[in-house]
């Protein structure tokens, strides 16, 4: 027994000594663990900060590079023909570099930013290719191939057009449906002032379709409003306890109060609104918002009968379904500065 | 014991069903969900994303998924198809202008493999509006009679008044129960 006792490190001491030794070691390990944890946490914080920084600088780089590429691309047509090949090669190389940058950044990019960045690159590549094809048509041996390609392309395009026209026919017939059925409506008018009073519209649903250069006055509280294809119109409406649905309008002015407002495919249009939830836009451009300011004799009664809260107005909280970036304002909508707002409507 | 029996037993134990609620934007999906759950419907904003509600109904646990219907969100619908027991398709019965879109989107869903076998309830919503189409008119417009692949029912309703919401849900639960659970 004595033989192996010397070779193995057996701690000797009283049980109490042993215990405190263990406790000490445990404490030491605990301390080490805590330090490690703290260090890791700090590193993590550092990393988060770095990610934020790199995200920011990434977006900056992407933007400036895109702009400069687009600029040089626009200048292509003014260059000498002999220099064009080099010019386009250089541009392609830069896009490739950008692509690499995006791939490397994929780790810290939020999915939305990544998708946007990839779209930008695809767009740039196709633009370069397009300009290149335009200014430097392919050599003769490739010509037959191109010829083959072209009719196919045209075929596809004409098919698209066919599809579109088919779609038009379809939507046209859908519109006809409205003409046939909705009792309360204005359809296919040009250059008129149209008006409906409370007894005609209260608690009804209203359709405004295919109007141009019209002024529409809805003195009352309809339950819902559907608006489609207006051009240069001005629309006024009393409080709506339900939703207003707008699409395909151009250069209009809307003065509306409602619970929900959905705006689709609309451009160059001003909205003076009272919305108790949140207005949303989708596929819109250059739409502007200001608070509701229409007044007519029985508006108080209409507010009361609909129960639409007068206090709660989220006119400037607009959700853009095409702009999911949280910290940057959507480029598609803006607030009308107070000095530019219409303060009294001449009717 | 076959696999089907095992699956049935598992489902039966939980009595949990997954219901997917879809439809064009402005159809009233969120309003139906909130009304059914007894919540305030005056403050509902258009859905950017989705809502999930779990509620008990007649001893069943209903997981209802309400996914936004904006055009830009429709491509994400397919992410919610997996293991869906019932599809509730909500229609704005007063939106005559988009019935064509509505029909197209619905029939695109019905050929979806992952929705095969799901019960289909069509809510012809907004019946409180005087200009709304009736359930038979909606059935015609959406060509529901051509559907042979799913158990389906069209139910007129109004999310604002709550009318017929319960009838519709009851039918959904019954139909799922008769398929998956042995009825008590």
From TrEMBL, chain A:
* Predominant localisation class: cytoplasm
> Known Pfam families for this protein?
TBCC, TBCC_N
User: Which subcellular locations apply to this protein?
Assistant: Cytoplasm
GO BP: any one term: post-chaperonin tubulin folding pathway
According to the UniProt entry, its GO molecular function terms are:
tubulin binding
Region annotated Disordered, chain positions: 1-25
Query: Locate the C-CAP/cofactor C-like domain: which residues?
Result: 166-323
One GO cellular component term, please give it: cytoplasm
Which of UniProt's keywords are assigned here?
A: Acetylation, Chaperone, Cytoplasm
Family, similarity comment: Belongs to the TBCC family.
Q: Which PANTHER family match?
A: TUBULIN FOLDING COFACTOR C, TUBULIN-SPECIFIC CHAPERONE C
Subunit structure, per the record?
Supercomplex made of cofactors A to E. Cofactors A and D function by capturing and stabilizing tubulin in a quasi-native conformation. Cofactor E binds to the cofactor D-tubulin complex; interaction with cofactor C then causes the release of tubulin polypeptides that are committed to the native state.
Q: What is this protein called?
A: Tubulin-specific chaperone c-like
UniProtKB/TrEMBL annotation, chain B:
The record's GO molecular-function terms, alphabetically, read: GTP binding; GTPase activity; metal ion binding
Residues at which GTP binds: 23-30, 69, 125-128
Instruction: Report keywords, A-Z.
Output: GTP-binding, Lipoprotein, Magnesium, Metal-binding, Myristate, Nucleotide-binding
Taxonomically, which superkingdom?
Eukaryota
- Which InterPro entries would you find in this protein's record? Arl2 (IPR045873), ARL2/3 (IPR044612), P-loop_NTPase (IPR027417), Small_GTP-bd (IPR005225), Small_GTPase_ARF/SAR (IPR006689)
Q: Does the keyword Hydrolase apply?
A: no
Q: Where, in this chain's numbering, is Mg(2+) bound?
A: 30, 47
Parts forming coiled coils: none
Q: Name one Pfam family in it.
A: Arf
Q: Which family does it belong to?
A: Belongs to the small GTPase superfamily. Arf family.
- NCBIfam families (alphabetical): small_GTP
Q: What's the protein here called?
A: ADP-ribosylation factor-like protein 2
Question: Taxonomic lineage per UniProt?
Answer: Eukaryota, Metazoa, Spiralia, Lophotrochozoa, Mollusca
């Amino acid at each position: 027994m004595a033989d192996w006792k010397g070779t193995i490190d057996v701690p000797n001491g009283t049980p109490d000594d042993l215990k405190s030794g263990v406790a000490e070691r445990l404490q030491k390990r605990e301390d080490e663990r805590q330090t490690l944890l703290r260090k890791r946490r700090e590193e993590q914080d550092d990393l988060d900060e770095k990610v934020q920084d790199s995200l920011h600088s990434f977006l900056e780089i992407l933007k400036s590079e895109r702009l400069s590429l687009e600029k040089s691309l626009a200048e292509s047509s003014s260059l000498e023909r002999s220099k064009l090949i080099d010019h386009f090669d250089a541009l392609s190389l830069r896009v490739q570099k950008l692509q690499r940058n995006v791939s490397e950044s994929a780790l810290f990019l939020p999915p939305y930013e990544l998708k946007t960045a990839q779209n930008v690159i695809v767009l740039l590549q196709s633009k370069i290719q397009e300009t290149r094809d335009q200014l430097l048509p392919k050599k003769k041996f490739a010509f037959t191939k191109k010829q083959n390609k072209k009719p196919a392309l045209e075929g596809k395009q004409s098919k698209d057009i066919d599809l579109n026209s088919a779609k038009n026919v379809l939507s046209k017939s859908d519109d006809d449906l409205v003409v046939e059925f909705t009792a309360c409506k204005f359809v296919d008018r040009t250059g008129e002032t149209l008006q409906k009073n409370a007894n005609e519209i209260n608690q009804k649903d209203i359709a405004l379709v295919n109007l141009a250069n019209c002024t529409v006055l809805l003195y009352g509280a309809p339950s819902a409003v559907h608006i489609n294809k207006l051009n240069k119109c001005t629309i006024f409406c009393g409080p709506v306890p339900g939703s207003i649905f707008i699409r395909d309008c151009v250069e209009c002015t809307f003065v509306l109060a409602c619970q929900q407002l959905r705006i689709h495919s609309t451009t160059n249009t001003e909205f003076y609104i009272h919305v108790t939830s949140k207005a949303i836009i989708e596929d819109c451009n250059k739409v502007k918002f200001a608070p509701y300011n229409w007044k007519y004799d029985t508006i108080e009664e209409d507010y009361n009968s609909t129960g639409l809260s007068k206090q709660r107005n989220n006119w400037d909280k607009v959700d853009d379904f095409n702009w999911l970036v949280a910290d940057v304002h959507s480029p598609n909508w803006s607030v009308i500065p107070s000095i530019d707002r219409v303060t009294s409507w001449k009717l | 014991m076959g696999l089907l029996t095992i699956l049935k037993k598992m489902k039966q134990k939980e009595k949990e069903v997954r219901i997917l609620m879809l439809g064009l934007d402005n159809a009233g999906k969120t309003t139906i969900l909130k009304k059914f759950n007894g919540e305030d419907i005056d403050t509902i904003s258009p859905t950017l994303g989705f809502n999930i509600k779990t509620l008990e109904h007649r001893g069943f646990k209903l997981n209802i998924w309400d996914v936004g219907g904006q055009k830009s969100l429709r491509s994400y619908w397919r992410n919610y198809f997996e293991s869906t027991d019932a599809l509730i398709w909500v229609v704005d019965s007063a939106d005559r202008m988009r019935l064509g879109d509505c029909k197209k989107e619905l029939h695109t869903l019905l050929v979806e493999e992952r929705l095969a076998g799901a019960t289909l309830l069509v809510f012809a919503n907004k019946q409180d509006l005087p200009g709304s189409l009736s359930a038979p008119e909606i059935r015609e417009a959406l060509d529901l009679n051509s559907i042979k692949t799913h158990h389906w029912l069209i139910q007129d309703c109004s999310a604002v008044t709550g009318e017929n919401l319960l009838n519709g849900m009851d039918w959904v639960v019954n139909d799922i129960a008769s398929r998956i659970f042995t009825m008590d």
